[in-house]
Amino acid sequence: MKKNGFTLVELLVAIAIFAILSALGWQTFDHIVKIKERNATHEENLAQLQEAYQQIQRDSLQIAAVVAGNTEKPQAALVLQNQNLSFSKSGVIDPLQQKKAPTERIEYQYNAQDKKLYRLKYTYIHSARDQQPVSSVLLSRVDQLQINVLNPTALDHWPDMIDPNDQLALRRLPRGLSIKFSIDDVEYEWIFDLLNTDFIATP
């Protein structure tokens, strides 16, 4: 009586087919996982960009022509130096009636080593350097950053050399703000209009 079964050749062919299907299945699975990871990274980047843009936009709308520091070392209402931007900001909310000052000092500070753009908040503008600021990260994984003021041409510093006793000059603000940066080889440029702020226009 003849026995039914698989020959060695049939078994080898079946194993080969199974191996090919397994490899194709793994490649498909790996591709799906990579796409999912890229989408998650993209969503994370988009959320970070939206939050940062909204924060900077709120700050730019509330920049105030208020001199900070003390009488011996006054700080202009807005200062851009070595890619660090600091400015006086109005619109402070005090719902708990803690007698907060109506203005505060904000600083954008870029750290190229850890590739982060920080936002520092000083509650008292007249003693900003004597207090510990509240620090938060605006942007991370920033490869390059360039901050310019627009007046109307782009300038990498503000203000020019002025008389520290000239209160009018210390209160002057530029007409706009430009922030250029790159994250994961993608370049961005944000431009903010400062004409609607409480400012003294330059001639």
Describe the overall structure:
The chain has a domain at 54-193. The protein is 29% helix and 31% strand. With 203 residues, the protein is α+β, with helices and mostly antiparallel strands. The longest helix has 54 residues, at 8-61. It is rod-shaped. Strand 3 and strand 4 form a beta hairpin. The protein has two helices and eleven strands; from the N terminus they run αβββββββββαββ. Residues 198-203 have low confidence and may be disordered. The strands form three sheets. Strands 3-4-5-6-7 form a five-stranded antiparallel β-sheet, with helices on one face.
Arithmetic mean of pLDDT:
82
**Oligomerization:** single chain
Quickly give the structural class.
Answer: alpha+beta
Total count of helical runs of at least 4 residues: 2
**Percent in strands:** 25-35%
Largest sheet features: 5 strands, antiparallel
Number of strands: 11
Keywords: Cell inner membrane, Cell membrane, Coiled coil, Membrane, Methylation, Transmembrane, Transmembrane helix
Coiled coil: 32-59
GO biological process, one term: protein secretion by the type II secretion system
Protein name: Type II secretion system protein J
Kindly summarize this structure in a few lines.
One of its GO terms (biological process) is protein secretion by the type II secretion system. This protein is α+β, with helices and mostly antiparallel strands.
